[in-house]
Design a protein that fits this description.
Layout: E1 2-3, E2 6-7, E3 11-14, E4 17-21, E5 32-35, H1 38-46, H2 53-70, H3 76-88, H4 95-108, H5 113-143, E6 150-154, H6 171-178, E7 183-188, H7 195-207, E8 211-214, H8 219-224, E9 230-233, E10 237-239, E11 244-247, H9 250-259, E12 264-267, E13 273-274, H10 291-294, E14 295-299, E15 305-309, E16 320-323, E17 330-333, E18 336-338, H11 342-350
Parallel strand pairs: 6-7, 6-9, 7-8, 9-12, 10-13, 12-17
Antiparallel strand pairs: 1-2, 3-4, 4-5, 10-11, 11-16, 14-15, 17-18
The protein binds 5-S-methyl-1-O-phosphono-5-thio-D-ribulose.
Length: 351
């Protein structure tokens, strides 16, 4: 993805540092940050400096490799396992985090000292490269669904920022747009953290894709008015039976799409599929801090960053919901489009 004409990846292991995009500063400013310790890397995931399934998967992988780089030869395995424990405790829902951590641990298994360290670094780089390549291919498969004049709705941010490059839900849109297909995107604001309004809208603007931001509650009315041709989102975890955990609000959008006969595709690399999680009810749903709902933040008209209170009441803040597989038209993966059921999950993982 290009920002002001310069190509960026969201996550990069650079020696003993992990180099990330500072997402909370968007859309006001674009800046990169570097974490120098595993604790700083874990904190970046926990506080959502880096967020999105693929991006935190690549960051988790990089964090375990970072521990190996920072450790003395005799301490490599102990350091990596301690890092894995800390990183895995940062966020519970997205499957990619555990996928990335486990890939790096497995790569170093049976090796010692420098060899273990080199294998860990190579595995972290492979996780990032594969994420970027899978998303590019998701874009190619998904673009086949997009026709001139379509109006596409999306929720949260499943774009380039949420992965290493390209994104999942936005990759088909980017591919089709670059191929000259005329599209318009409805961007759900995605309260409480506003990933749609803050991140998806910024990404689409960078890429020159026509789009409009709507309040979350406005999507159903756009569907009823016949102004939505397709709904496409990402996923944080897909269970073995095809149930989809994604940003809170996805379930409501999926119910509305079904009611109005609008196709709903979920775009994801197979690293998001969790064959060990039988169904949606088994997916741990992260409950986040009440302050995310009680406050909002941004810059005022003078460019001063402010956090302002929106309510004094107690709140509930579930970060994700589960959409039953029966509401999903299909899964767009790097291997092609599959049915949203146990057979589709198994077939995509077998490729
Ligand atoms: O809590 P977040 O912002 O890390 O949520 C993850 C997501 O980006 C969304 O749920 C997204 O739609 C899934 S795909 C990256």
């Amino acid at each position: 993805m290009n920002v002001d004409g310069v190509h960026h990846r969201t996550v990069r292991l650079d020696g003993a540092c992990v180099d990330l995009i500072d997402q909370p500063r968007l859309p006001h400013a674009f800046a990169r940050v570097r974490t120098k310790t595993v604790l700083e890397t874990a904190d970046a995931i926990r506080t959502m400096v880096v967020r999105g399934a693929g991006a935190i998967g690549a960051t988790g992988a990089a964090g375990v490799a970072q521990a190996a780089v920072l450790a003395g030869d005799s301490q490599v395995h102990a350091a990596m396992h301690e890092a894995a424990r800390i990183l895995a405790a940062t966020r519970p829902t997205a499957q990619n985090l555990f996928y990335g951590i486990d890939r790096v641990l497995a790569a170093a298994e049976g090796l010692e000292g420098r060899q273990a360290r080199d294998a860990a670094v190579a595995a972290a780089e492979a996780v990032a490269d594969e994420d970027a390549d899978s998303c590019r291919r998701i874009g190619e498969h998904g673009a086949a669904l997009l026709k001139d004049g379509m109006r596409i709705a999306t929720h949260c941010n499943a774009g380039w920022l949420a992965f290493v490059d390209w994104g999942s839900a936005l990759a088909p849109i980017y591919r089709a747009h670059r191929d000259g297909v005329k599209l318009e995107v409805w961007v759900d604001e995605t309260r409480p953290r506003g990933q749609g309004a803050r991140l998806t809208a910024w990404e689409l603007a960078q890429e020159g894709v026509p789009h409009r931001v709507i309040a979350d509650g406005a999507l159903a009315s756009r569907m009823a008015a016949g102004e939505v041709d397709l709904l496409i989102t990402g996923a944080d975890r897909v269970a073995a039976n095809g149930d989809v955990a994604n940003k809170i609000g996805t379930y409501g959008a999926a119910v509305c799409a079904k009611h109005h006969g609008i196709p709903f595709y979920v775009a994801l690399p197979t690293s998001t599929m969790a064959p060990g999680t039988p169904d949606g009810a088994s997916i741990p749903i992260e409950q986040r801090d009440a302050e995310e709902v009680q406050y909002t933040w941004g810059t005022d008209d003078d460019g001063v960053f402010r956090r302002v209170r929106t309510t004094y009441s107690p709140v509930a803040n579930p970060a994700f919901d589960v959409t039953p597989a029966s509401l999903v038209t299909g899964f767009i993966t790097q291997h092609g489009i599959f049915g949203a059921d146990a057979t589709g999950v198994a077939a995509s993982l077998a490729r």
